[in-house]
């Protein structure tokens, strides 16, 4: 009988908003068995759920709810089942988002508002560095000064969630700067997310995805 362990199963959640094919390829290269689907049972039972997102905050939320993705994310996290959001898939995890003066509700897994970037050049498109905390698991093994690929015009500029229970680990927050500092990644128990696109970030992004898969 072989002692070789089976690869972790990851579902890239397909709800109509996200670069699902590039995410699928990157996660497969990182060593997981990957399926692109919006199927409820598959998304609930996978070892890890990856939620991509592109476009407008409100449109992504509408698509996610239509696919029951809001319920799936909530139920998985209630059971400590890993979820990772990418780009707008990260933004919708916050309480709300403001685009063109219109406020839309997010999933409210974290407090905070997604707001327009205040910078000379918007959108923030291209390579940028990150400032992870020293105890980050997500960025373990990633070279200091590594660059990641961003494409966004909105971000969270203020982080307010802490823990008052000394037995619980406070969320680990990574920052980047484009015009002003913004949240570029979060590690919070079973819920991890990145504002940048790890699937488009070369070796550094591949290491990051491998780190996530190792926690599943």
Automatic annotation (TrEMBL):
GO cellular component: cytoplasm
Subcellular location, principal: cytoplasm
GO molecular function, a single term: imidazoleglycerol-phosphate synthase activity
CDD domains linked: GATase1_IGP_Synthase
Occurrences of domain Glutamine amidotransferase (ranges): 11-212
The EC number(s) this enzyme carries: 4.3.2.10, 3.5.1.2
Coiled coil: none
Catalytic function, reaction form: 5-[(5-phospho-1-deoxy-D-ribulos-1-ylimino)methylamino]-1-(5-phospho-beta-D-ribosyl)imidazole-4-carboxamide + L-glutamine = D-erythro-1-(imidazol-4-yl)glycerol 3-phosphate + 5-amino-1-(5-phospho-beta-D-ribosyl)imidazole-4-carboxamide + L-glutamate + H(+); L-glutamine + H2O = L-glutamate + NH4(+)
Biological processes per GO annotation: L-histidine biosynthetic process
Superkingdom to which the source organism belongs: Bacteria
Subunit structure: Heterodimer of HisH and HisF.
Role: IGPS catalyzes the conversion of PRFAR and glutamine to IGP, AICAR and glutamate. The HisH subunit catalyzes the hydrolysis of glutamine to glutamate and ammonia as part of the synthesis of IGP and AICAR. The resulting ammonia molecule is channeled to the active site of HisF.
Protein name: Imidazole glycerol phosphate synthase subunit HisH
Record gene name: hisH
